[in-house]
TrEMBL record:
Keywords: Signal. InterPro entries: DKNYY. It holds the Pfam family DKNYY. This is Uncharacterized protein.
């Protein structure tokens, strides 16, 4: 009995060895040939001319009669001029193909994918829709200025797009991705989620008025944003910062100043009035009943910070400054 089992095992192992020896796998693992039969993964290809069949890459192959995407014939593909562009797109002398689909009117000589989903030729823009598994023309799109922002979002010099469809935005120039997630975007006026306009947002000036902003992408240049008018002031060197803060200062009595908590002191003043302090955020005050001392009311905590000498003012500016990107700075 043991001899029979052993003999069976030897025969089985030998048959596997023979099949492996007969199997011709291409460098691309999707196609393989076993004996005289070609397979795509594990499915036999019965509609091919086996004698002339050759693989192009992991997704494409051809014989003397047809070109194939995976296991299917690409209708009207020219076998002599056919060439893949990437794993999704290919072309011949007459057509551009998305997988096995002809992209109507696409120019094979100028066609170029911009990313996985957006592509262009000299005249038009195209989008590959993951859900329908098709590529289609984007109506009214400018191929010369189209810029994909990520997989779903793109824009040209006049319009924005989500999943290849026109997206009405209020300001194309400032339209950009939002860091919240892939389907989030914004312009200077609104937020957009999954291609739909959501709530309006405060202007950048409204969001940072009264604050000291520091341009992170421009050598840390600092600016004071006026809390009362749409104006910004470059702070530059310590002396410049001190002068700007003096010029923008508003007179205040000692009594009113005492209503605003001192950010440099841990003592709780009995005269503090937070309702009054909240209304003064971002302002610079000059004590008119004293020696003209200057104070900055930080919008983040409604506390006052003494500006003192130029070096003191510059230190306050750096410590309380808010980093801002170049894009957001342009919206001020």
């Amino acid at each position: 009995m043991k001899k029979i089992l052993y003999l069976t095992f030897v025969i089985f192992s030998f048959s596997i060895y023979i099949n492996m020896a007969l199997a011709t796998e291409t460098n691309d693992s999707c196609y393989k040939k076993i004996a005289d039969t070609w397979f795509y993964i594990d499915e036999a290809l019965s509609n091919i001319d086996a004698a002339s069949f050759q693989t192009i890459n992991s997704c494409y192959a051809k014989d003397k009669n047809h070109v194939y995407y995976e296991k299917d014939i690409i209708i009207n593909a020219d076998t002599l001029s056919f060439q893949p562009i990437n794993i999704f797109y290919s072309k011949d002398k007459n057509h551009v193909f998305f997988k096995k689909q002809i992209i109507t009117n696409a120019n094979p000589f100028s066609f170029k994918p911009l990313n996985t989903h957006y592509s262009i030729d000299n005249n038009s823009c195209y989008y590959y829709d993951y859900y329908s598994n098709k590529a289609y023309l984007i109506e009214g799109c400018d191929p010369k200025t189209l810029k994909p922002l990520n997989t779903p979002y793109a824009k040209d010099n006049k319009k924005a797009y989500y999943l290849g469809k026109y997206l009405e935005v209020k300001d194309v120039d400032t339209f950009r991705l939002n860091k919240t997630g892939e389907t989030y975007a914004e312009d200077k006026y609104n937020y957009y989620i999954a291609g739909e306009r959501k709530e309006s947002k405060k202007s950048m000036h409204e969001r940072v008025k009264g604050k000291i902003v520091i341009k992170k992408e421009d050598n840390g240049k600092a600016y004071y944003v006026s809390p009362t008018k749409k104006a910004i002031f470059y702070l530059g060197r310590p002396a410049d910062a001190f002068e700007v803060m003096r010029q923008q200062g508003i007179g205040i009595s000692n009594e009113d100043l005492q209503k605003i908590p001192n950010g440099s002191s841990k003592l709780n003043d009995k005269d503090i009035n937070m309702k009054f302090a909240e209304k003064q955020k971002g302002k610079i005050f000059i004590q008119t009943q004293s020696r003209g001392e200057a104070w900055y009311i930080n919008p983040s905590d409604a506390k006052r910070y003494y500006l003192g000498r130029p070096a003191d003012a510059f230190k306050v500016m750096r410590n309380l400054g808010l980093g801002i990107s170049n894009n957001d700075f342009l919206d001020l």
